[in-house]
Design brief:
There is one protein chain. The protein is α/β, with parallel strands linked by helices and 379 residues long. It has two domains: 8-265, Dihydropteroate synthase-like (TIM Barrel); 279-373, Sulfite Reductase Hemoprotein, domain 1. The chain is built from 13 helices and 15 strands. The strands form three sheets. It has an eight-stranded parallel β-barrel with strand order 3-4-5-6-7-8-9-10, surrounded by six helices. A five-stranded mixed β-sheet has the order 11-12-13-14-15. A two-stranded antiparallel sheet has the order 1-2.
Length: 379
């Protein structure tokens, strides 16, 4: 728990100021499917979630959110993920306790409008309805103007983006906000959050490894980031982001609570652990996933790629158009999953679009070529 940050209220709970760290998760159902989403939100809360996040990217989803709130009011603390649809803030704010926006996505949407104007719109809606706000910086979607100033230092770019948006919110006289700085590399998560905490020790921090992947490896990566930070008093709320089916989403809460209990007891299981060889990252299952087959595809990728387990190769499996385009660019091979087809990439280069079955065949060919190029001998 942090002893330095200010308190921020999120519905029925407060975080920061030395209070216990709150655990969060995100619904993996489609937001327009009200009843299943309500069921997942209630299940996550029953498992110990202090906050449950739901993505909203259209008017129809905003209308569904209003009904979800009606059915969960007083029982679930709801956070909404706006993605690029910042203008929906006024429609969703009456129905949630917290709004999350991504600074990078704000930059890309309606570029003719100043970022500060967009942020002010979101903050106005949050202020009017008593919502907290999360500034959610992700490594794969940082404002290109910021990354251009740090061409070889993604940590510095993410921290600069977070600090700049803190300045905007401070200028708007709004202090009910938290910050998250996430990366798929746990070492960068530690470095970035340490740097941010030094610069802004007053701001509550949401911890997360953005594409930890499938358990158990995803849990290990998460522990590599969380354990050192939590022992230093950095972190006021957290999410364990795992690639799991919808009916197993409570595992994120269970693992988060287990990490907190282990840190409190001094059981630091990740000390000295290093990521070596094949690194498969995959984003957590959430309501933005356009085909639930994405989770099973990630599992099949892990199985197929075992012949390359000793090679220093990264494969990224992303489940939607939000994470897919940018967060596969830095991987040796990337899969960006759509409703019926999967876009296969070699770094930033798109190799083609394939069915969920056929993509594994082409992926193996590309992986074998990279292994051979690196001096290995594919089976």
């Amino acid at each position: 728990m942090s002893l330095k940050t200010r308190k921020v209220r999120i519905g029925s709970i407060e975080i920061g100021g030395g209070l216990p760290v709150a655990v969060q998760s995100m619904c993996a159902t489609h937001t327009r499917d009200v009843d299943p989403t309500v069921a997942v939100a209630r299940a996550l809360t029953a498992a110990g979630a202090g906050v449950v996040r739901i993505a909203v990217d259209s008017d129809a989803e905003a209308e569904a959110l209003a009904e979800i709130r009606k059915q969960t009011k007083g029982a679930v603390n709801l956070s909404v993920d706006l993605q690029e649809s910042w203008r929906l803030a006024t429609k969703v704010a009456p129905h949630v306790d917290k709004i999350r926006y991504n600074p990078g996505h704000l930059h890309h949407h309606e570029k003719d409008k100043p970022t500060r104007e967009k942020v002010a719109f979101i903050i106005g809606a949050a202020r009017d309805h008593g919502c907290a706000v999360r500034i959610g910086v992700n490594c794969g979607s940082v404002d290109p103007e910021v990354t251009s100033r740090h061409p070889h230092d993604s940590v510095a770019a993410t921290v600069e983006s977070a600090l700049a948006h803190c300045d905007i919110l401070d200028g708007l006289k709004f202090d009910q906000y938290v910050v998250s700085i996430k990366d798929s590399d746990p070492r960068k998560v530690v470095e970035a959050n340490r740097a941010f905490s030094r610069a802004r020790p007053d701001v509550p921090i949401h911890l997360g490894v953005t594409e930890a992947g499938l358990p158990p490896g995803g849990v290990v990566k998460t522990r590599m980031a969380f354990e050192p930070l939590l022992t230093e008093g950095i972190g006021d709320t957290l999410r364990v982001s795992l690639t799991v089916p919808c009916d197993r989403k409570t595992q994120e809460i269970e693992e988060g609570l287990r990490i907190l209990a282990d840190v409190k007891a001094g059981r630091l299981t990740s000390k000295g652990f290093q990521i070596k060889g094949l690194n498969i990252i995959s984003c957590p299952s959430c309501s933005r996933v356009e085909n639930e087959e994405f989770v099973h595809l990630a599992e099949r990728v892990v199985e197929m790629a075992q012949f390359a387990k000793d090679s220093e190769i990264t494969i990224a499996v992303m489940g939607c158009r939000v994470n897919g385009p940018g967060e596969t660019d830095d991987a040796d091979l990337g899969l960006w999953c759509g409703p019926t087809h999967v876009n296969l990439k070699r770094g930033p280069e798109k190799l083609g679009s394939f069915t969920y079955t056929d993509v594994l065949i082409r992926l193996k060919v590309e992986l074998e070529a990279i292994v051979k190029r690196k001096g290995g001998a594919p089976a």
